[in-house]
Amino acid sequence: MRPLVLLWGCLVLPGYGSLVGPKEISGFEGGTVSLQCTYGEELKKYRKYWCRESGFLISRCSGTVYSGEYGQEGRVSVHDSPRQLRFEVILRNLTLKDMGQYWCGVKRVGFDKTFSVSLLVFPGISRQATQLDSTSTEDTSFVPSRSSSKPRVSIPMTRMLAPVLVLLALLLATGLAALGSYLLQWRKKAQLAMETPRKEKVHLSHLNQRTLELAPQGSFDISSPAFLIW
């Protein structure tokens, strides 16, 4: 009789073979949510499962997915890690219909060890954004487009052309400076070429006048060829 009482106490008492996890999880429609359930050493060898709570008067499991080699059925997967004394449940592609109460449990002889988890699913933001983008694209056939694609394209082009424009400006300034210097030198040479004969004539006239002042009167005739040479 005593062994039966001890066995019943081990199976029923909550302190034996504890199983803990989050009481509530949440996710967005179309997204993925996961949770980890940890258990005691006594539950290491038993199979773990995930199911949805159903029934009005008597609660029962529906759509149970057990851990195993694959541990996946549809959008739900259960992976057990006995060394870490925990198993992970992953729910993919959430829908609003997935909202409800679930059980995270361990299958064993007599009574299963379970705890309840509440799943909340919110409307997917990504889908709404996609629908808004599609409707805005359709409305462009009736409303003039105000997209910022042109500024996005023109800004990089301006940045690309800026160095080229600066280089062309520098080359133009250098060419103008060289042309101005050449014209200035040419003008100076032309002026020098025009002033050289005048200076020679003035110099010769000064020499003739100086010669006449220094030479005695009557020493030579002004009309003589020698004087004309001077």
From TrEMBL:
Gene3D superfamilies: Immunoglobulins. GO terms for molecular function: transmembrane signaling receptor activity. It holds the Pfam family V-set. Keywords: Membrane, Signal, Transmembrane, Transmembrane helix. It is found in: Membrane. The keyword Nucleotide-binding does not apply. One of its GO terms (cellular component) is plasma membrane. Residues 14-118 form the Ig-like domain. The keyword Transmembrane helix applies. The chain crosses the membrane at residues 160-184. Its main location: membrane. SMART domains: IG. Residues 1-17 form the signal peptide. InterPro entries: CD300_family_receptors, Ig-like_dom, Ig-like_dom_sf, Ig-like_fold, Ig_sub, Ig_V-set. PANTHER family: CMRF35-LIKE MOLECULE 9, POLYMERIC-IMMUNOGLOBULIN RECEPTOR. This is Ig-like domain-containing protein. It comes from Balaenoptera musculus.
